Amino acid sequence: MAITLSGDQAIPAPPLASRLTTAQVWGIVLLAPYLLVFLAFVVYPVCYGLWLARAPSNYVALYNDPIFARAAVNTLIFLVIGINIKMLIALFLSGFFAQQRTWIKWLSVIFILPWAVPSIPTILSVRFMLNPEWGIINHYIFAFTGDDGPNWLNDPTVALTMAIGVHIWKSLPFWTLILITGRLAIAQDLFEAAEVDGANWWQKFRFITWPSMQTLYVTCTLLSMIWTLGDFNSVYLLTGGGPADLTHVLSTLGIRYLRLDQLSLAMASIVCAMPFVLPLVYFMMKRLSR
Amino acid sequence: MKLPSLRDVATEARLLLIGIPVFLWTMIPIYHMFLFAISPKEDAFSGKLWPDHPTLHNFEIVFRQQHYFLRDFYVQFWNSTLIAAAVGVLTLFIATAAAFSISRLKVPGGRIVLNLALFTYFIPAAFLAVPMYRTMGNYGLLNNHWALILAMVTIASPYAIWVLKQASDKLPVELDEAAVMDGATTLQIFRLVYLPLMMPSLVAIGTYAVLLAWNEYLYAFLLLSNDREITLPVALGNFLAADDSPWELLMTTGFIYALPPAAVYYAFRRYMVGGLTAGAVKS
């Protein structure tokens, strides 16, 4: 703290402890554990990582690495196409699950399973289903058509599509659940009034459902995009980044560099993602701290 | 009994037309895992929808650790349990203390800490993994359970603090004031007034942290590598190292590993849906 040289210096400031109430002292004590964790495991690693990635040569190396360019494109495809498809399905299914039927209630309990179980065993299960020789999918393709099925995970486009599919399988229930909450919050008499006026389902959606869910939907889409940037499991456990490192996304690429002992490249690839992540994060924080 | 009208039947049929694909889509990967778990090796690889000779033999092999990949099954199961429990307890402690401090005691700078926490929550965890790995190395914690526990606490706390802060803002201030009038100390308010009222949110957050730690793969596989230190998901990933992986055993172990979180989830669903979705997205 800077000491100010003003005229009435004669009266020293009271010691810090006496200026705080007991409640505030306790407040600081109780906040301290989190602050320690935050300093030791967020601030220090981030600063250290940025320091490691400081050399411009890292970025030149990244720019010249075709795998990095490919991973960046894959990440964009994953986010822009994958997430929007997922959210549209979630929006559609939220309407389905909002129906009052006993069997739909039971189905919603089952529907949440992919979210409730850990992703590793289920992703590996899908991986084996897609096995070209022994997988159940190609088994049935052969049984019905007599032709060998495709080698699913050996084609980069198909493999990435499958990884997006796995991601959707895993996280669709969560977003559907949230959109159902949003849908159920809409006053029912609006729909009844629309019914009386003879509105069809599209008009009901367009003029009642969508205006009340718009904000929630956009928030969910952005949040899902930020989190999907960190979706390591869907790609790593299904394709391992292969074939020929063509299906990497930024999160698996960072780990790939790390495994190859190129820590500064790993950090640099993450730094490159920050111009996309930070605006999204800023926008989300604005929304949530309103 | 009234016969359903043609219109009702058509609506029901349309709903079924959505419901059946949803059911299949959800269940196929899980059923496939279950199918492998109860199939002998020959049946599993033959593409049958139900094995000719369903058996619990795979479970027996896993529980007796009778395979190279499974020789440390119990140790790994125990590691997973211990780490999940430790993360749950530590996160609850840190987050409850912080939320109480920010929301009830109005500690100076609390708002900033909350925003920093929220910021950490939004940064994808996989991005923090790389520097975290190096940091744990610097701290000398690699291959130590504490590395994973502390990393998971770091990841779980921001959301926990945020949800608990929202929940405690809803408790009336008069409660604290009345307790102060009665001569309660800050700690007594925390223990006797605050904690009991926060119980539903605490259950939700504790469950959240435990499941997060139990399900974590990336951090576990980066921070732990010794066969007797790793958690179950890392062991599952290690199955893939061999060309002729025993997939029926992998799926059996995966099935056993997936059961506890599913059970916990359904047991606490009431709390989870109320406590978490409300906090997850504030519309």
UniProtKB/TrEMBL annotation, chain A:
<keyword id="KW-0813">Transport</keyword>
<dbReference type="GO" id="GO:0055085">
    <property type="term" value="P:transmembrane transport"/>
</dbReference>
<dbReference type="Pfam" id="PF00528">
    <property type="entry name" value="BPD_transp_1"/>
</dbReference>
<dbReference type="GO" id="GO:0005886">
    <property type="term" value="C:plasma membrane"/>
</dbReference>
<feature type="transmembrane region" description="Helical">
    <location>
        <begin position="158"/>
        <end position="186"/>
    </location>
</feature>
<keyword id="KW-1003">Cell membrane</keyword>
<dbReference type="InterPro" id="IPR051393">
    <property type="entry name" value="ABC_transporter_permease"/>
</dbReference>
<comment type="similarity">
    <text>Belongs to the binding-protein-dependent transport system permease family.</text>
</comment>
<keyword id="KW-1133">Transmembrane helix</keyword>
<keyword id="KW-0812">Transmembrane</keyword>
<feature type="transmembrane region" description="Helical">
    <location>
        <begin position="25"/>
        <end position="51"/>
    </location>
</feature>
<feature type="transmembrane region" description="Helical">
    <location>
        <begin position="106"/>
        <end position="130"/>
    </location>
</feature>
<feature type="transmembrane region" description="Helical">
    <location>
        <begin position="207"/>
        <end position="229"/>
    </location>
</feature>
<feature type="transmembrane region" description="Helical">
    <location>
        <begin position="71"/>
        <end position="94"/>
    </location>
</feature>
<feature type="transmembrane region" description="Helical">
    <location>
        <begin position="263"/>
        <end position="285"/>
    </location>
</feature>
<protein>
    <submittedName>
        <fullName>ABC transporter permease</fullName>
    </submittedName>
</protein>
<dbReference type="InterPro" id="IPR035906">
    <property type="entry name" value="MetI-like_sf"/>
</dbReference>
<dbReference type="InterPro" id="IPR000515">
    <property type="entry name" value="MetI-like"/>
</dbReference>
<feature type="domain" description="ABC transmembrane type-1">
    <location>
        <begin position="72"/>
        <end position="282"/>
    </location>
</feature>
<keyword id="KW-0472">Membrane</keyword>
From TrEMBL, chain B:
<feature type="transmembrane region" description="Helical">
    <location>
        <begin position="15"/>
        <end position="38"/>
    </location>
</feature>
<dbReference type="GO" id="GO:0005886">
    <property type="term" value="C:plasma membrane"/>
</dbReference>
<keyword id="KW-0472">Membrane</keyword>
<protein>
    <submittedName>
        <fullName>ABC transporter permease</fullName>
    </submittedName>
</protein>
<keyword id="KW-0812">Transmembrane</keyword>
<feature type="domain" description="ABC transmembrane type-1">
    <location>
        <begin position="77"/>
        <end position="268"/>
    </location>
</feature>
<dbReference type="Pfam" id="PF00528">
    <property type="entry name" value="BPD_transp_1"/>
</dbReference>
<keyword id="KW-0813">Transport</keyword>
<feature type="transmembrane region" description="Helical">
    <location>
        <begin position="145"/>
        <end position="164"/>
    </location>
</feature>
<dbReference type="GO" id="GO:0055085">
    <property type="term" value="P:transmembrane transport"/>
</dbReference>
<feature type="transmembrane region" description="Helical">
    <location>
        <begin position="249"/>
        <end position="268"/>
    </location>
</feature>
<feature type="transmembrane region" description="Helical">
    <location>
        <begin position="192"/>
        <end position="214"/>
    </location>
</feature>
<dbReference type="InterPro" id="IPR035906">
    <property type="entry name" value="MetI-like_sf"/>
</dbReference>
<keyword id="KW-1133">Transmembrane helix</keyword>
<dbReference type="InterPro" id="IPR000515">
    <property type="entry name" value="MetI-like"/>
</dbReference>
<dbReference type="InterPro" id="IPR050901">
    <property type="entry name" value="BP-dep_ABC_trans_perm"/>
</dbReference>
<feature type="transmembrane region" description="Helical">
    <location>
        <begin position="112"/>
        <end position="133"/>
    </location>
</feature>
<feature type="transmembrane region" description="Helical">
    <location>
        <begin position="77"/>
        <end position="100"/>
    </location>
</feature>
<keyword id="KW-1003">Cell membrane</keyword>
<comment type="similarity">
    <text>Belongs to the binding-protein-dependent transport system permease family.</text>
</comment>
